[in-house]
Structure formats: C-alpha cells, structure tokens
Design goal:
Elements: E1 2-3, E2 9-11, E3 20-28, E4 32-42, H1 68-85, E5 95-98, E6 109-114, E7 120-123, E8 130-132, H2 141-146, E9 158-165, E10 171-177, E11 193-197, E12 202-206, E13 210-215, E14 218-223, H3 232-246, E15 253-257, H4 265-268, E16 274-279, H5 282-291, E17 298-302, H6 305-311, E18 318-321, H7 330-339, E19 343-348, H8 351-363, E20 366-374, E21 384-391
Parallel strand pairs: 2-4, 5-20, 10-11, 15-16, 15-18, 16-17, 18-19
Antiparallel strand pairs: 1-2, 3-4, 6-7, 6-9, 7-8, 9-10, 11-12, 13-14, 19-21, 20-21
Helix pairs in contact: 1-8, 6-7
C-alpha cells in the first residue's frame, strides 16, 4: 500500500513493501484507490518467481510472489494489526506462529467452476469470469493426478465440481447444480464416489455419500455437504494447540459451538466430564453422531448457535467456537456471555470479524490470554488463528 499526494491509500496486489514499482490506477474512490502492477523496477529481496502460470489471473492465490517465511510474517502482522485497530486491544506482541510444514499441495478439497465449454476452471481475480485451468499447486497430489483427467459435458444448471481426498486414497466428486433433476452421469476407469447436490436433494451417483478423513489417528466420516478443514497436517497442529489451551480434566463441562462433524469434540470427549455440541447443518450433525457414537458424555443440539445459547443455561467451564467467516455476531456473543464460561477458545478464519467480536468479548468481561496464528492456507491471504480468552 502507498499514499497518493492527497493522502488516499492505494492498494496494489502482487507487490511487496519497500519495492520500487510502476503502477496504473484502475479504481478511484473518495478515501482510497486501487492499482495494478505494471512493472517491478527494484524488487524486494524476498520476491520469488511464482510457481503457477495462472498466478495473478487466478483469484485463489495471493502471495506466490513472496517467499514462504515472509508470507507467515506478513499474515501474523495483519492478525496483530486487526486485533489492535479493530478490536481495540493493545500491544499484541506475543503471537505464537505455526507455519505449514509444506506450503504446497496441502488441500484435501478443491472446488472448480465450469467454463461455458464445460472445462474445469477457476474464477479470475476480482471477477466472476471463469477461465480454463491447466495446473494448480495447492491440492494434494492425488487430487492433482485426477482432475486433469475429467471431461464434463456442459449441462444446464451444473455450476461447480469439487474433489475431496480421504484416507486410503479415497476420492469424492461433488457436483453442485441449480437443476433439481440429477445428471445422467457416467464415470470410467476411476474409483471415485460421485454425489449430486441439487437445490432440494442430494443423490449418490456412484460409491458412497461420505468420505473418511484421518487426523492424528482418528477417523472422521465427512458427508458431501459437511465442512472439514482443508489442510490435514495443520489441523493436527490446531487440535493439539486447542487441547493445550483447554487444560482438560475429567471435571470440565465443555460446549463446542459450530462443532461440525466433531473434529474438535472427538479429541476432547475422552478427557472431559461432559461435552455439548451445537451445529445447524443436518449433514454435519449426522456425521457428528457417527464420529462420537462411542462416548456417553456427549450431547448434540441441531439448531442455530444463537438460539441454543439463548435458551440453554448450562454454565459450562469452557466454550469453544469455530464460526464461519462472518464470525459470531451480536446474538451469539450475547449468548456466550450469558453462559459465563471461565475459558473461551475462539478459532477464527477472519481476523477482521475476530477483532470485531473481540470488542464485545472484552466489554463482557473477557481478557485475551493467548494468540496463535496457524497457517492453514499458504500462498493465500487467508488467516486462521486460535485465541484463548479468560473471564476476568
């Protein structure tokens, strides 16, 4: 970011602080402007050659021009800046950083859009236009072996094609469509489950309606419509850090809000007195029930988080939240404060909404105790963090 003579900030993708560059303004607003990079005149010593030929055209990656250690530094600094500027917190200096062991080929799930010709593609940066893709260096290698082999005829309503890799080289393809009628679909020479997700129903076209994922020796059933973290190796580190934050004991009552398929709950259940899951997705609730069936100390509420928290007065010792990108929101924060848990563990995928919620948590009597930045999404600007809050 640079400043115009009138003081407006200019945002320039694919540049690095300290570089001397030539730019072209593409958008001007009252308080800021956007520009595109024309030429790098004096490159930063941390600039590297992007690995992918689609880089800058594709909207999926944002930092391939920066070496990986610097990517981590940049994102950690953004997390601190957001907590301080938006959250009103002071001197966020002690941030634990967990870098990815491999910043490439880490995604166990990838989603493609379709071009008008039916080819697999990605959306262009800052655009809804889909272009045909020929390479991608983020999916796990099994997915990268399969997707170039796929040929899909253009079909009315078919919008997205996803691939998810599980244990024992299991693969699932998910076809998302606005057409309520399932496709007449055939797949040849590939051992793969295929699920059709229409606007009103889910139909299994081949194989199974769920795939199995493994994290730290535990197997999780994950249905086609259920969310699961895309970076398996970093998820193991994330769960480990949550367990350390929790200081679990067999006397604790823990509430896992936005529990999904039970990724965190499955590790906590053997070590606590009682665990209460809250999840709104019916598919994820089905998976949760299967994944935690062995435990008698687990209960599950299938409803929006804000509704359950407003009507349930269990006074848990610990609350864990892992909300979507929109964060908690006012009603959910109010429900959390009403529970009066001693410890709150907040897993966030957006530092801006985390910082917004932080103001409300502080106003409700919580103190930020620990911050961990865990890089689940190398080469991109997405920032995953774990914070621990203690009731004052």
């Amino acid at each position: 970011m640079v400043k115009l003579p009138d003081g407006r900030a200019v945002f320039i993708p694919f540049t690095i602080a300290g570089e001397h560059v030539r730019i072209s303004l593409v958008e001007e607003r009252k308080s800021y402007a956007r520009a595109e990079l024309v030429e790098v005149l004096e490159p930063s010593p941390v600039r590297v050659m992007p690995r992918c030929k689609h880089y800058t055209n594709c909207g999926g990656c944002h930092y391939q021009h920066v070496n990986y250690p610097t990517q981590v530094e940049i994102k950690s600094a953004i997390l601190c800046e957001q907590l301080e500027r938006i959250g009103g917190l002071e001197d966020i200096t002690e941030v634990e950083v967990i870098s990815a062991p491999d910043p490439w080929y880490y995604r166990n799930h990838i989603q493609f859009h379709l071009t008008r010709e039916g080819r697999l593609g990605f959306q262009q940066a800052r655009s809804n236009h889909t272009f045909s893709v020929h390479e991608c260096h983020l999916p796990e290698r099994l997915i990268n072996q399969v997707w170039p082999l796929l040929e899909i005829e253009p079909v009315r309503g078919l919008e997205r094609v996803s691939l998810r890799a599980g244990v024992n080289e299991d693969l699932m393809m998910i076809l998302e469509s606005t057409n309520p009628e399932p496709l007449d679909f055939q797949i040849e020479d590939l051992a793969i489950s295929v699920v059709y997700k229409g606007p009103e129903n889910v139909v299994v076209l081949a194989g199974s309606d769920a795939i199995h994922m493994e994290v730290s020796g535990k197997i999780f059933q994950v249905s086609a419509g259920s969310f699961f973290q895309v970076n398996t190796s970093q998820v193991e580190a994330m769960v480990g850090r949550i367990m350390e934050y929790l200081c679990s004991s067999d006397s604790l009552t823990v509430m896992d809000v936005y529990c999904g398929v039970g990724l965190i709950s499955a590790f906590l259940a053997p070590h606590v007195k009682s665990l209460i899951g809250i999840e709104v997705s019916p598919e994820a609730c089905t998976d949760f029930t299967t994944n935690l069936d062995e435990f008698d100390n687990v209960s599950l509420y299938e409803a929006p988080a804000e509704e359950v928290l407003a009507n349930l007065k269990l006074k848990p010792d610990v609350i864990i939240v892992d909300p979507p990108r929109d964060g908690l929101g006012v009603k959910t924060v109010e429900g959390i404060l009403a529970q009066e848990a001693t410890i709150l563990i907040y897993v966030s995928c957006d530092p801006a909404t985390l910082a917004r919620d932080a103001r409300s948590l502080v106003a409700g009597g919580y103190i930020l105790d620990k911050v961990t930045f865990i890089d689940l999404f190398p080469q991109t600007y997405h920032i995953e963090s774990i914070t621990r809050w203690v009731k004052s």
